Amino acid sequence: MEPVEQIIDLITVVGVFAFAISGALTAMEKKLDLFGVFIIAFATAVGGGSLRDVIIADRSVFWLVEPIYTYIIIGGTAFSILFRKKLGYLKTTLSLFDTIGLALYTIIGVQIGIHMEFSGVSCIALGTITGSFGGVIRDILVNDVPLIFQKEIYATISIFGASLYYILHHLGNTGIWVQLLSIFSIIILRSIVVYFEIKLPGIYSKD
Amino acid sequence: MEPVEQIIDLITVVGVFAFAISGALTAMEKKLDLFGVFIIAFATAVGGGSLRDVIIADRSVFWLVEPIYTYIIIGGTAFSILFRKKLGYLKTTLSLFDTIGLALYTIIGVQIGIHMEFSGVSCIALGTITGSFGGVIRDILVNDVPLIFQKEIYATISIFGASLYYILHHLGNTGIWVQLLSIFSIIILRSIVVYFEIKLPGIYSKD
Amino acid sequence: MEPVEQIIDLITVVGVFAFAISGALTAMEKKLDLFGVFIIAFATAVGGGSLRDVIIADRSVFWLVEPIYTYIIIGGTAFSILFRKKLGYLKTTLSLFDTIGLALYTIIGVQIGIHMEFSGVSCIALGTITGSFGGVIRDILVNDVPLIFQKEIYATISIFGASLYYILHHLGNTGIWVQLLSIFSIIILRSIVVYFEIKLPGIYSKD
């Protein structure tokens, strides 16, 4: 395994961990019990990738095949419960990990679509689903209207990064730098959006 | 391709377009943002067929394989947003397209079940799922109790049309007229039900 | 077919029937209409096993392949509607069947995981999903926060029984007694928990 791949593996673990914490915090706000907190953490961390694997033929969901993800999520849940009073201080750090998770999951989704030889629009859809839909499933389970349907920048950035990666790949660029460029584009764009509190123009503004 | 098949293809496009508009209008009523409106339109238009493909082994969902559906839905979403103030006048037309979509999706679902050699009751279930469950998924995503659980005529007509097609096919009739008869039965029945505001007898009436 | 297998088949039928009644009663409390009551009964009875079949590659959901389940659920729905005013007296009996269903579904889920050669934690997850997630899907469809996220003992017992079965099997025990022991452990444990109203310690107690 090359150093770059090792770094990506490491960041993936961190991304899953961050997504799990994001889910556990939401569940604890809703005063769910231990099992509920774990399931919401689980659904947030692997929900997007699971939906991706379910809608593609002949794939068991990835966390059944690679049990390491379940252990990371158990760890993330335990961490969230133990340090739930101190996680407020960590919000910036968590948001960064969440962004890293979004970026990595998006590119992984596009890569699987390319591997399955789907069309461009389907590959980009798979990237967006993998990156964003853990949060949608989390919100459905705790009975909220999904957050990303109301703050579309999150998903829009995922669509942008997925498109960038697909186009570069389609033009014949297959080096690791294409992945890294797409991943960092998502991370930087989202950081800018969060920092400056940018919103897309609403569609109801003139009503 | 024969003329009849071309007509069915054309009507399918119209049905997807109408389902997408129905989803987009629901999402805009809930004041969702651009991405939310698109996702609800998407889920309404292809949710039933996706659930069907997911519960049958060895099938990728149809819209991953045929990207034309995604483009139609993007078009339907854009159309809904641009003309959202005028779509009130189009409600009757939209309701007709919605009915056509229900009819076509139902029969397509039964045909896939027959092709997979499932039993009659499973084929009818697949037809009903394909025809009706886009609306169920739409309602779950915007956090409502699904409409068809409260107004069962919609799904009941789908079950009736699916049963009619299955029985005629089972008796050895395989001509295009069997499809057309089943499709028009659904369209006419539903139009009658909507026009005369017919409801099935409630099960709580004597409570 | 041996007598023990016949007994298990018989109990399975009773479990599906009981789960269907549990779903139908929930739906009637929400004043859903005939079709809604049937769909909620259906989702409660086969939702866990369907989710299991969907996340494993190459499986159609079991009720498409074996239509007997659909007939049992139609029967359970009709039974619930006809006797809805008298089912209050049957609550203890129903709770017992519900527990039997939980126990059987849990062990069936683990067995399928072992057959697919998944790791221990994935087998236990499949058992818990098969046993508990019909109720989760029921609650999402009627727009409640899932009950088991707030009363975790139900799922915790499922996890315990699944672990017991997996460990015994992993240690080389493959006799029918391993299945029976695991099934009865779940039934007895849950009966004790319900009778004495035992709750796990909350995670918010010190807040």
Descriptors:
homotrimer, 207 residues, 8 helices, globular
What can you tell me about this protein's structure?
The structure is a homotrimer of 207-residue chains. Chain A has one domain (3-195). Helix content of chain A is 74%, strand content 0%. Chain A has helices at residues 3-29, 34-55, 62-65, 68-82, 91-115, 120-141, 153-170, 176-196. In chain A, helix 2 (34-55) runs antiparallel to helix 6 (120-141). Chain A is globular, with a radius of gyration of 17 Å. The mean pLDDT of chain A is 85. Chains in contact: A-B, A-C, B-C. The A-C interface holds A 27-28, 30-37, 39-40, 50, 53-54, 58-61, 63-65, 67, 70-71, 81, 140-143 and C 54-58, 113, 116, 118-122, 125-126, 136, 140, 143-146, 148-152, 155-156, 200, 202-204.
Write the layout of secondary structure elements.
Three copies of one chain form a homotrimer.
Chain A (H helix, E strand, L loop, with lengths): L2 H27 L4 H22 L6 H4 L2 H15 L8 H25 L4 H22 L11 H18 L5 H21 L11
Helix pairs in contact in A: 1-2, 1-4, 1-5, 2-4, 2-6, 5-6, 5-7, 5-8, 6-7, 7-8
Instruction: Name the beta content range of chain A.
Output: under 5%
Number of E-state strands of chain A: 0
Stretches of chain A where pLDDT is under 50 for at least 5 consecutive residues are none
Helix content of chain A: over 70%
Label the overall shape of chain A.
globular
